[in-house]
Amino acid sequence: MATVTRAALQWDYAPAPEARDAASLRSSYDLFIGGEWVAPARRVATINPATEEPLAEVGSASASEVAAAVAAARAAAPGWAALAPLERGKYVFRIARPLLDQSRDLAVVESLDGGKPIRESRDVDVPLAAAHFFSYAGWADKLSYALGGRSFAPRGVVGQIIPWNFPLLMAAWKLAPALACGNTAVLKPAETTPLTALLLASICEEAELPPGVVNVVTGDGAAGAALVRAEVDKVAFTGSTAVGKEIACALAGTDVALTLELGGKSANIVFEDAAIDQAVEGIVDGIFFNQGHVCCAGSRLLVQESVAEEVVRKLWARMERLRVGDPLDKNTDVGAINSAAQLERITSLVAAGSREGAERRSISCALPDAGYWFPPTLFLDVAPAHRIAVEEIFGPVVSVMTFRTPREAIERANNSAYGLAAGVWTNNGAQAFSVARELRAGVVWQNTYNRFDPTAAFGGYKESGFGREGGPAGLLPYVRLTV
Ligand code: NAD
Q: Which residue minimizes the CA distance to atom 13 of ligand 1?
């Protein structure tokens, strides 16, 4: 039979941009306090990290504006706690619906403000945020089942501080269980991504949530610190380990409850019997999803020595096909780095990797002139003590290391100050479970990565924090058990 050799296929995607005007952005936003839009004393611009163009002006809340939001939440707390649980559940449900109705608008704003590809904000961030509200709406009148029949009371007023990597989703993770349990909340989004939290405040208004039940104050770290020190009953923080430690110190010795969801340096472990092509997809998803701005990113790739050459070859071939560019283009795989400061952090850790002797490979791709960008990168010849194997880079950079035995894989994976997540790729189910049992990580994915579900608990060990979000476990931090 004659063999037909086809010339290498040469083709490219046509641009497929989502319409920017699908986002109904105003030029300026106030603070949302006590059900009113309150003009802040000071405003700052939030910018599009893909272009460096300003998107809108938002408030930079002062300590007294934060205190006003806490006072509004305090005033609303007794009424909200006294509401019949079924009625509270209806309000939470009413927030979920418009999230879906306005999903296109929200996805575009999330990508404009944060730099993430529209494919991700459209298919992951927004639907998952809605799913959290739907899921916790159902728990509102069934709390005693989740709490093992114990008696409980809401904590009261909760201060919630969230990061910039999943702005709307983190707001949903925080607000949905807090409201379902009968608490009132003051939410402070991150300074580089305030817009979807403000749109969520509008949705709470449309849902006719009683004034003061949800308050949104935009601002920087100082506003976050003011919220921690305000008259709150609980603080829920997601962000860096450094700030988490500061908050833990500030609250030590007080009766303010605290949960911390912090950083990670998660191991993605590939055994020789794994389906390699599938594992390569999982490695790519594990580290390049959301530009690697993911607390549970699979940033340490541990590959069994016998398949290391094949995995690295296939991974590199796959990386070279990643499309880096306009976050609003539906074909984009890797969008913009969230801020100049984050780009600087990634760049300096990558330079440290090269300096310390690891072999750097970054894909060659045209990067836009304006905005903040970093090419997908892998490091080979990484030693466990290298900074790129120890510190959270929070960017599209994976450090590849090898192991020989399952025991060595477990020891290497656990050799981290963090303990947020891990991935295990193997066709041997018994091996998957025995390895997972020994991994000191809050979440272990088998033959997949970065799967999130509102019914499953998420959280860390060690310097990745404490407390769980998601599922029934995510209700516990928002109640005080009384017997
Ligand atoms: P960050 O700690 O700098 O900021 C997080 C939030 O805290 C922001 O809203 C910020 O304004 C506020 N803040 C800053 N200083 C503060 C202070 N002194 N007191 C109170 N609030 C303060 O973190 P980031 O750079 O925005 O986010 C990235 C980090 O978040 C990464 O380390 C990542 O791993 C982590 N993260 C963890 C999870 C998780 O669930 N474990 C999820 C997402 C992100």
A: 221
Q: What is the CA radius of gyration of the chain?
A: 23
Nearest CA to ligand 1 atom 42: 295
Atom of ligand 1 nearest to the CA of 458: 40
The domain defined by 267-453 folds into Aldehyde Dehydrogenase; Chain A, domain 2 (3.40.309)
Tell me the best of 58, 113, 161 to mutate to test the pocket of ligand 1, counting ligand atoms within 8 Å of each CB and taking the most. 161
CB 272 within 8 A of CB 302: no
Q: For the segment 266-292, what is each residue's pLDDT rounded down to a tens digit?
A: 999 999 999 999 999 999 999 999 999
181 catalytic per annotation: no
Question: Is 261 one of the annotated active-site residues of the chain?
Answer: yes
120 Cα: distance to centroid of ligand 1 (angstroms): 21
Which atom from ligand 1 is nearest to the alpha carbon of 239? 30
- Whether the per-residue pLDDT at 223 is higher than 90: the answer is yes
Question: Hey, where are the domains in the chain?
Answer: 20-262+464-481, 267-453
Pairing type for strands 54-59 and 152-154 reads: unpaired
465 within 8 A of 459, measured Cβ to Cβ: yes
Residue 440 C-alpha to ligand 1 middle, in angstroms? Answer: 22
20-262+464-481 has which fold? Aldehyde Dehydrogenase; Chain A, domain 1 (3.40.605)
Give, using CA atoms, the residue closest to atom 4 of ligand 1. 239
How do residues 302-319 score in pLDDT, each as one tens digit? Answer: 999 999 999 999 999 999
SS3 for 11-46 is CCCCCCECCHHHCCCCCECCEEECCEEECCCCEEEE
Choosing from 295, 296, 463, 469, the catalytic residue is: 295
Mean per-residue pLDDT over the chain, rounded:
96
Choose one of 128, 243, 464 to mutate for the ligand 1 pocket test, by most ligand atoms within 8 angstroms of C-beta.
243
Is 306 in a helix, a strand, or coil?
helix
CA dist list (Å): 423 to 194, 201, 441: 31, 36, 10
